[in-house]
């Protein structure tokens, strides 16, 4: 309305002005020019106003081009400017303003175009309306209008001045016209501005509404999260997006919202919905709920809701984000977390922070194990909480492994909260984030102090002799290498001293094992007294001791020290009522004189000790090369003997035992024979002691027994009273279950037990538990002979307790018959003893008729020796049974 009014005012003013101008055209050329300028200014004003109107009409319509500024209008404007610049060329100020105006008029159409394009884009590309370009164009138009008004005012002032005198009336008219024009222009500008704003707001709101609608549709339909809208009164689903259809696996529109959840959850849902509605809130979070697929599969959704008006209905807009995987992960995490808490091992999770590891989690077992609370540990330094020194090499090596991404483990001495020390066994593993560097470490550990204590105990037991508390053979082995290496590093000598107690067996046998133990302890104590703390004394085995001496100078000094040790033992002491004087055979090997190898040195000291023993008790021998060769020979023989046993090269010969009255062969002694392919015949007095040392006597004994039993079974068919005796070594008593082995052999070979006799030495009788074994053997029905009687240490009380069937008089006494009164006395005494105790006496090694006569005259029951027959093979031996050698009885 105001725009129309303004246009009218301007039109009237223009009309008045033009008519006035024409009616007075002769008046003044200058005046005409001024009026022309004014007219052109008004033309410019008109052209701009028209352009703006066209722009507003065209804006918002599709295909908008240059509606506001067509070529025709642009040409008119250009021509008007040309005229005005020409007319105002003499007026500097006005001319400048015209140039300024021309520039603005050139920019303005471009700004209008830009604004039109933006609006068009906003419409088609869903971008927001940008009124900035419109405002810019509006500001430029404003500037044009203001400038035009200023120039017009100047021109009007000019005209007024020119006509003031003569044409007062006209001037007033013109002034009123000018005022009217100015008012009109201002009104027009205001109107334009208002109209433009209104038009823009309308366009913008239309665009926004359409856009919002379009965007919502797109957002709703394409959104990956399930969304639906349902009627809060009827529970009918009004619309649902594609993601919802997929999530629930069915057509949702018009279905009931209830069917989206398990039947058991429907009541809860309705109650909650009522609560949400009643709260008056426009929306909120519904939390995690159980929903179900059309096929019945239950899954978890995280719900948000928003109440709205949908097509005139009270509706609720719902998003249902499927969080089943997340819920499952949460469940698994909860389970893992509970498992960690339930673990009996302490668990620490730490994160890497600026080169240090900081505890982020500890379980309950950690608190129990270390005494440190969960709160104290969380955020604290990893190793400090575990109780280990991070600077220690072991801990540093664990850190290095972890940093390199490797799992590792170790045994550590650790400290509890209260400072007490304990052992932990620790396993640590790196945990990787997305990159290839570990972000966390998991450390699992447990208190293993008890186990370590037990292992220490076992180690001590394994390396220490329980009786003397000296290191044992293993203890020596563990330390000898280091001691030899130390001597090598220092360039000094070292001696291995091997001591074997000479009379220990006698002490043990006569005084008993408790006394024997006492002697061993005393020997250990005395030997320990003679060495320095850097040296070593070891109970090597039974009655064998080894000392390692060093730092005493050359070999001679070492030998002197070993001699001192031997002498220290020779001082008598009381064991119970008895006085015991320990004696030892001593062998010495010196590093580096004899060898640089610890094992070899030990072997040499042992060989030297054997050599010493062979020269008599209480002697000392320094190792030399001959001993080595002897000991090598022994070793070779032992090897050959083992081979002979395994290839069944041990045979048996039989020496007859003759009744001294009838002269008939009443039995045999079975004796082992070994003929080595290389060494030839080897005497039993050589290989039997060796076999006893190496333990292979057990196999030899069993083989001899087996062969003898088979042979006896054959002979017994013809000579049922025949008794064949088999030698049994004390080692067999110690190392095998003799009664069982013999019973089995008897069974296997079919021999009658009463045809079998076992020869045992007096030493066996003394050994612990031997009486029980002998009784068991007796129960098998076989007989027992005491071999080499008189050469050992058996006491008569033992003989009395164990009633043997035969006493075999040692051949050393038989040898003395005719040349030693003492031996003859002993022979008579033994025969008398046998008679008194009801045992048959057998004299061994009868070589001469004189010996035989003495024995027969003194009532000896049986005889055996080369005078009758040497040990011979079974075939030959059989001939003796037929009494072919009875003639030997006659002189
Ligand atoms: P031994 O048990 O005292 O056996 C008697 C030894 O005296 C045999 O020696 C025998 O050949 C020898 N001998 C017999 N009559 C005479 C004689 O008139 N003069 C002389 N100087 N010697 C005679 P051999 O066979 O050399 O056996 C030596 C020792 O080896 C045996 O002594 C026995 O202790 C042991 N031995 C032999 N065979 C076995 C066996 O199978 N088992 C065990 N444990 N020891 C055996
Ligand atoms: Ca014998
Ligand atoms: Ca004998």
Structure at a glance:
The strands form 5 sheets. This protein has an 8-stranded mixed β-barrel with strand order 18-19-21-22-23-24-25-26, surrounded by 5 helices. Strands 2-1-5-4-3 form a 5-stranded antiparallel β-sheet. A 5-stranded antiparallel β-sheet has the order 7-6-10-9-8, with helices on both faces. It is an alpha+beta fold and about 900 residues long.
Describe the 3D structure.
The protein has 891 residues and is α+β, with helices and mostly antiparallel strands. The protein is built from 31 helices and 26 strands. An eight-stranded mixed beta barrel has the order 18-19-21-22-23-24-25-26, surrounded by five helices. Strands 2-1-5-4-3 form a five-stranded antiparallel β-sheet. The chain has a five-stranded antiparallel β-sheet with strand order 7-6-10-9-8, with helices on both faces. Strand 8 and strand 9 form a beta hairpin. The site of one calcium ion (CA) has 4 residues, from loops.
């Amino acid at each position: 309305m105001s725009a129309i009014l303004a246009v009218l005012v301007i039109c009237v003013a223009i009309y008045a002005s033009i008519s006035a101008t024409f009616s007075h055209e002769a008046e003044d050329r200058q005046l005409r020019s001024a009026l022309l300028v004014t007219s052109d200014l008004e033309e410019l004003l008109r052209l701009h106003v028209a352009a703006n109107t066209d722009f507003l009409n065209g804006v918002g319509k599709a295909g908008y081009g240059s509606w506001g500024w067509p070529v025709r209008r642009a040409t008119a404007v250009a021509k008007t400017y040309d005229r005005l610049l020409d007319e105002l060329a003499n007026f500097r100020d006005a001319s400048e303003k015209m140039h300024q105006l021309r520039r603005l008029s050139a920019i303005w159409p471009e700004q209008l175009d830009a604004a039109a394009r933006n609006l068009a884009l906003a419409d088609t590309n869903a971008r927001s309306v940008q009124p900035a370009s419109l405002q810019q164009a509006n500001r430029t138009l404003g500037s044009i209008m203001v400038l035009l008004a200023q120039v017009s005012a100047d021109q009007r002032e000019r005209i007024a001045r020119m006509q003031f005198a003569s044409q007062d009336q006209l001037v007033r008219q013109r002034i009123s016209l000018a005022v009217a024009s100015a008012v009109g222009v201002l009104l027009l500008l205001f109107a334009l501005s208002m109209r433009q704003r209104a038009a823009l707001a309308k366009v913008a709101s239309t665009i926004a509404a359409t856009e919002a609608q379009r965007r919502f549709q797109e957002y709703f339909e394409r959104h990956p999260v399930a969304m639906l809208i349902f009627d809060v009164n009827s529970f009918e689903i009004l619309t649902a997006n594609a993601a919802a259809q997929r999530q629930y696996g069915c057509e949702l529109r018009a279905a009931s919202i209830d069917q989206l959840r398990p039947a058991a959850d429907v009541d809860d849902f309705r109650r909650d919905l009522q609560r949400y509605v009643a709260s008056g809130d426009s929306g909120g979070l519904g939390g995690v709920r159980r929903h179900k697929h059309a096929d019945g599969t239950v899954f978890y959704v995280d719900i948000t809701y928003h109440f709205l008006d949908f097509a005139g209905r009270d509706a609720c807009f719902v998003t249902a984000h499927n969080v089943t995987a997340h819920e499952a992960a949460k469940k698994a995490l909860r389970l893992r977390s509970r498992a960690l808490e339930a673990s009996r091992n302490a668990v620490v999770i730490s994160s890497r922070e600026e080169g240090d590891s900081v505890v982020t989690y500890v379980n309950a077992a950690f608190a129990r194990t270390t005494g440190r609370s969960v709160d104290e540990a969380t955020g604290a330094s990893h190793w400090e909480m575990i109780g280990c020194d991070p600077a220690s090499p072991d801990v540093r090596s664990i850190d290095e492994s972890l940093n390199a991404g490797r799992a590792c483990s170790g045994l550590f001495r650790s400290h509890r909260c209260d400072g007490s020390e304990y052992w932990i066994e620790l396993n640590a593993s790196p945990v990787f984030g997305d990159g290839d560097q570990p972000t966390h470490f998991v450390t699992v550990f447990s208190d293993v102090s008890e186990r370590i204590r037990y292992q220490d105990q076992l180690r001590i037991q394994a390396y220490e002799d329980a009786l003397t508390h000296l290191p044992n053979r293993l203890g020596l082995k563990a330390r000898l290498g280091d001691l030899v290496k130390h001597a090598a590093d220092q360039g000094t000598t070292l001696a291995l001293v091997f001591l074997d107690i000479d009379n220990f067996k006698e002490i043990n046998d006569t005084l008993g094992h408790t006394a024997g133990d006492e002697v061993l302890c005393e020997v250990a104590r005395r030997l320990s007294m003679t060495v320095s703390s850097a040296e070593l004394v070891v109970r090597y085995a039974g009655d064998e001791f080894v000392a390692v001496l060093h730092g005493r100078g050359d070999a001679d000094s070492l030998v002197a020290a070993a001699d001192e040790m031997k002498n220290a033992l020779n001082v008598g002491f009381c064991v119970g009522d008895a006085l015991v004087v320990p004696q030892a055979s001593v062998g010495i090997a010196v590093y580096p004189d004899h060898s640089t190898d610890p094992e070899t040195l030990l072997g040499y000291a042992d060989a030297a000790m054997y050599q010493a023993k062979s020269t008599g008790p209480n002697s000392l021998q320094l190792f030399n090369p001959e001993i080595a060769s002897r000991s090598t020979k022994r070793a070779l023989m032992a090897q050959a003997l083992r081979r002979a046993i395994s290839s069944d090269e041990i045979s048996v010969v039989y020496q007859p035992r003759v009744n001294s009255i009838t002269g008939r062969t009443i039995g045999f002694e079975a004796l082992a024979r070994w003929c080595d392919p290389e060494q030839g015949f080897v005497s039993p007095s050589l290989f039997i002691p060796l076999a006893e040392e190496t333990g292979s006597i057990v196999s030899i004994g069993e083989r001899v027994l087996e062969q003898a039993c088979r042979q006896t079974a054959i002979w017994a068919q013809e000579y049922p009273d025949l008794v064949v005796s088999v030698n049994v070594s004390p080692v067999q008593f110690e190392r095998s279950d003799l009664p069982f082995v013999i019973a089995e052999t008897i069974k296997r070979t079919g021999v009658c037990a009463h045809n079998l006799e076992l020869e045992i030495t007096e030493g066996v009788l003394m050994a612990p538990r031997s009486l029980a074994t002998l009784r068991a053997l007796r129960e098998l029905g076989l007989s027992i002979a005491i071999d080499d009687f008189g050469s050992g240490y058996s006491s008569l009380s033992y003989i009395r307790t164990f009633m043997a069937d035969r006493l075999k008089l040692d051949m050393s006494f038989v040898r003395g018959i005719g040349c030693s009164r003492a031996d003859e006395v002993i022979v008579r005494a033994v025969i008398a003893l046998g008679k008194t105790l009801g045992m048959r006496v057998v004299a061994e090694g009868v070589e001469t008729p004189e010996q035989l006569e003495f024995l027969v005259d003194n009532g000896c029951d049986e005889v055996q020796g080369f005078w009758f027959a040497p040990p011979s093979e079974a075939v030959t031996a059989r001939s003796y049974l037929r009494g072919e050698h009875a003639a030997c009885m006659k002189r």
